[in-house]
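Hello again, I could really use a second opinion on something today. Take your time with it, there's no hurry, and the full record follows here:

___
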Amino acid sequence: MTDETKPDYEKEIKKAVQLEPNLDVIKPKGHSPPVFVKIDRYRELMDDIQKLRSYSLGMRDALDAMGELEKEFKTAMNITNMVLDKLNVLISSLDMKLFRKPGQAPDEAREIKPPEDIENHVKNIYEQIERLKGELKSIS
């Protein structure tokens, strides 16, 4: 390559350095504060938006947790109601077996008279309880 065909990089670099950037895109029309103030304000806004987003996500998490607690509470209430129903059935069964005569309706008013000989009655109940204890021990 001769000097004439060789590109002149030095002239191109000087020309590029002397060019001024097109500031019409950056500068807003009318009077405006300096650019560094705008960048600081922009950063503040970005920080505020990030905080709002964080608060929003925190609220969503709290609501989800409350929903889970509500589901667990409803489940616990359902289980408690089922246990209470079973207990009422058991109480009714015991009532029928221990205190009602065969064929007596549960709604019939009854008067339970104390036994005439209380001491013998208590002694018989105590003996029955002791016998049941012995049977339970032999089973286990």
